[in-house]
Amino acid sequence: MIVIINGCSSAGKSSIIKEMQKLSKKPLLHTGIDWFWKMIPGEYKEFGSKAHEGYSFTQTVESQNNPVIHVQTGQFGQKIDNAMPYVIKCLADFGHDIAIDEIFTRDTTLHNYITALRENTVYFVGVMCSLQELEKREKQRGNRELGLARGQIDFVHEYCDYYDFIVDSTDCDATVCAQHILNFIDANPYPSGMRKLEPRVLEKSK
């Protein structure tokens, strides 16, 4: 079983997965963009000298003077994006249940997951959160660039109609969200969101 948890930065995805691990009856591995992010040399990400080859941050301001950060992916970053779903598939094929913390802002990333995991049982779960709350958390956390959520929110839930399940973390704590997700999984052994989404994403990416 694979659970893809998709949502903006600071939506609480990692916290929800940690709670799912505590509540799950079976061992549940936690991986995703943050785990692969830690592998990348510092100069190849954010504002590093070679970030244009990996994942570069471009900061602007919108009409109300709020910061907005967009992430651009270079050739090295694309190689990581291409490999990540297959690394996860390898773990799943060895019998591990996995929860993936992801931020889908590009069709190519979603395409990679669909292609790699089409033979696996995959739950596609969306974590919603208001922009006001996301920006509040960015400021409180101190380990996120201000403007990441604002740069992602218009794109990350583009395919929300295909989610198998949705939780809203704006006013719901991680433990409750985690329990809701696990309850849904227990009651629905045959998720269909990614399978239904596949033809649309593959057609769009041609």
Task: Please sum up the structure shown.
Helices cover 43% and strands 21% of the residues. It contains eight helices and eight strands; from the N terminus they run βαβαβββαβαβααβαα.
Characterize the structure shown.
With 206 residues, the chain is of the alpha/beta class. It has one domain (22-121, 130-172, 186-200): P-loop containing nucleotide triphosphate hydrolases (Rossmann fold), CATH 3.40.50. Helices cover 43% and strands 21% of the residues. It has helices spanning 13-23, 33-37, 75-93, 107-117, 131-141, 148-152, 174-187, 193-204; strands at residues 2-6, 28-32, 45-46, 55-61, 67-73, 97-102, 122-128, 165-168. A hairpin with a 5-residue loop joins strand 4 (55-61) and strand 5. The radius of gyration is 17 Å and the shape is globular.
Helicity range of the residues? 40-55%
Query: What is the average per-residue confidence, as pLDDT, rounded to a whole number?
Result: 93
Query: Taking Cα atoms only, what radius of gyration do you get, to the nearest Å?
Result: 17 Å
Order of helices and strands: EHEHEEEHEHEHHEHH
Largest sheet, spatial ordering of strands: 2-6-1-7-8
Shape: globular
CATH C-level: Alpha Beta
Biggest beta-sheet profile? 5 strands, parallel
* Poorly predicted regions: none
| CATH architecture assignment | 3-Layer(aba) Sandwich
The assigned structural class equals alpha/beta
Strand proportion, as a percent range, falls in 15-25%
- What is the CATH topology descriptor? Rossmann fold
Number of domains: 1
Rounded to the nearest angstrom, the distance between the terminal CA atoms is 29 Å
Number of helices: 8
Number of strands: 8
Tell me the CATH superfamily. P-loop containing nucleotide triphosphate hydrolases
